[in-house]
Amino acid sequence: MAWIYLTLAGVLEVLWAYTMKQSAGFTKLIPSVVTLVTMAASFGLLSVSMKSLLLGTAYTIWTGIGAVGAFVVGIFALGESVTTARIAAATLIVSGLILMKLSS
């Protein structure tokens, strides 16, 4: 169950990053509220997953899902640039996540 909680926490991290961008510096009410609620839920699920997962593993996976997820959302939802260097960086993050999972 801890891995499911951790995965959901990572997905919620992507969602709060996206809605934070949409909140325009917390000047728009609905995206701001969604950001705060999903942020709290993400932290809560991360905390629950850490009851049985190693701190380093849980935190690394959580931030990695958030980083790569936000990268993908930025490209597809916000029209952010796709460059070789950005793709290579995301690939390295995913490789690190796989290695972290395999080592725990």
UniProtKB/TrEMBL annotation:
One MF term in the entry's GO annotations: transmembrane transporter activity
Q: State the Gene3D superfamilies in the record.
A: 1.10.3730.20
Q: Which residues cross the membrane?
A: 27-46, 53-78, 84-102
Q: Where in the cell is it found?
A: Cell membrane
**How does the UniProt record describe the way this protein sits in the membrane?**
Multi-pass membrane protein
Gene Ontology process terms (BP): xenobiotic detoxification by transmembrane export across the plasma membrane
Name this polypeptide is given:
Guanidinium exporter
